[in-house]
Specification:
elongated; mainly alpha; 125 residues
Length: 125
């Protein structure tokens, strides 16, 4: 049985909720953003692979490649998926690499909403 990547979105929601329990909750919010990104990214990657039958790279450039394949589409839903993946990736990079994250609580909720939107849009295709 293959992994259901939406489980990462459920985990992200749980992490975001638990962030209010801990003193700062920063680690939980950062992890929530990261898991939300990977839920949306992997669902998008698998859509291209399994539905469109695209041959995708196995290198780190796959993140940019998946975004580009959606953004360059003439289909408005696909273009929206690509743009949202790009936004979500920027949030994930900040959460995973920056020493300081501005508006972390707001960005966590934004990341969850973007990931949900991407996964919902994939179901429309």
């Amino acid at each position: 049985m293959s992994f259901d990547w939406t489980d990462y979105l459920d985990l992200a929601r749980n992490l975001a909720r638990s962030s209010s329990i801990h003193s700062s909750g920063e680690a939980e919010m950062r992890a929530a953003i990261s898991r939300a990104y990977y839920a949306a990214f992997c669902k998008s990657r698998n859509f291209l692979r399994d539905v469109d039958h695209d041959l995708l790279s196995s290198s780190a450039s796959i993140h940019q490649e998946v975004q580009h394949k959606f953004i360059s589409s003439r289909n408005i839903i696909r273009k929206s998926i690509g743009l949202n993946l790009s936004r979500l990736r920027r949030l994930r990079n900040a959460a995973d690499y920056d020493d300081r994250c501005i508006s972390l609580s707001k960005n966590t909720m934004f990341a969850l909403n973007i990931a949900e939107s991407i996964i919902s849009d994939l179901k429309k295709l």
